Fold this sequence. Notes:
10 strands; 8 helices; five-stranded mixed β-sheet
Amino acid sequence: xxxxxxxxxxxxxxxxxxxxxxxxxxxxxxxxxxxxxxxxxxxxxxxxxxxxxxxxxxxxxxxxxxxxxxxxxxxxxxxxxxxxxxxxxxxxxxxxxxxxxxxxxxxxxxxxxxxxxxxxxxxxxxxxxxxxxxxxxxxxxxxxxxxxxxxxxxxxxxxxxxxxxxxxxxxxxxxxxxxxxxxxxxxxxxxxxxxxxxxxxxxxxxxxxxxxxxxxxxxxxxxxxxxxxxx
Length: 231
C-alpha cells in the first residue's frame, strides 16, 4: 500500500527536525514541497538525495491529479512545507483531502510530527493555553472586520500569523478595537513572536500599544506569530 507522509519541517533552525523525519525523507520515492529551493537547503544540509516535486497553494488540479497518479503507482511520497507542519494554515490539507476522497483505504496517510510556529509561540506565551483558538492569517480586505471581531469576542487566547508587511497595520487595527466598551473579553496584554528559532528571534510582550512601539523601533523582518491574551 502506498503511503503519503505528512512531514513537519523546521520553522527556522535546521536542527529542529526529528530523526524519524530525516529517515522518511531519505526513504520515500518523492518529496512534495512548496518551494523546491527552500526544501533543497534542508535536504543538502542533511545530504538527502531524494528527488523533489513542486506542490503549493497555486498548484492546479492537474498537478494534484499527477500526485494522486504517483500514489496509484504505489509510490511513497512525503509532503513537506517550507516551514512547520503541512496542513496548518498551509495548502497541504487540499492534497490530503483529495487523496482520501479518491483513494480512500488504498492509501496510508501518516503524520510525522514536529515543528509548528503555533505551538512554539504558545509554549513561551505565559498565557493559559489549555484552550486557545488559531485563526491563520488575517484577511487582507474582505471579512477583515469579522476576523478582528472573532479575536476580540473570543473567551480564549487567540493565535494568528501575520506578514512583515502588514504586522503594524494589523496590530494598530486591534489596538483601536480594544478600546471599544463593547469588547468585554478584550485583554490588552499580547505576545508577538518574530523569526522563531532563527538568529534574530525576538519575543515582544506587554500591552498592545507598547508592543507596537517596540516593533516599530526594530527592523521588521520575517513572519510573525501573534497571541492575544484573555481575561
